[in-house]
């Protein structure tokens, strides 16, 4: 059963990617639809980041993790180097966990 599902999904993915360039010149989307598609892609990516950053398995990862992610986000917003963002987020999370914040 899983192999069949994987094959069906693979064929569907290939068909979608193959048909897209073929229909590019034949199908035109309204500007509003393009804006909605762009916004929905951004929202889905943000939701994926939030879920993976704030959960530990299937449950909330704790306030220390949430605050660490927030510190990392602020550091990235301030355009600090990537290594500094990661180190600040990790040190914040580790420090809060050592202080007893779950």
From TrEMBL:
<keyword id="KW-1133">Transmembrane helix</keyword>
<feature type="transmembrane region" description="Helical">
    <location>
        <begin position="36"/>
        <end position="54"/>
    </location>
</feature>
<dbReference type="InterPro" id="IPR008407">
    <property type="entry name" value="Brnchd-chn_aa_trnsp_AzlD"/>
</dbReference>
<feature type="transmembrane region" description="Helical">
    <location>
        <begin position="60"/>
        <end position="77"/>
    </location>
</feature>
<keyword id="KW-0812">Transmembrane</keyword>
<protein>
    <submittedName>
        <fullName>Branched-chain amino acid transport protein (AzlD)</fullName>
    </submittedName>
</protein>
<keyword id="KW-0472">Membrane</keyword>
<feature type="transmembrane region" description="Helical">
    <location>
        <begin position="6"/>
        <end position="24"/>
    </location>
</feature>
<dbReference type="Pfam" id="PF05437">
    <property type="entry name" value="AzlD"/>
</dbReference>
<feature type="transmembrane region" description="Helical">
    <location>
        <begin position="82"/>
        <end position="100"/>
    </location>
</feature>
């Amino acid at each position: 059963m899983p192999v069949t599902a994987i094959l069906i999904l693979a064929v569907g993915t290939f068909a979608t990617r193959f048909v897209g360039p073929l229909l590019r010149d034949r199908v035109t989307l309204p500007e509003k639809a393009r804006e909605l598609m762009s916004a929905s892609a951004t929202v889905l990516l943000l939701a994926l980041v939030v879920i993976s950053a704030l959960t530990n398995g299937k449950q909330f990862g704790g306030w220390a993790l949430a605050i660490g992610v927030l510190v990392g986000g602020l550091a990235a917003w301030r355009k600090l180097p990537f290594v500094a963002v990661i180190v600040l987020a990790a040190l914040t999370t580790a420090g809060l966990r050592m202080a007893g914040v779950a």
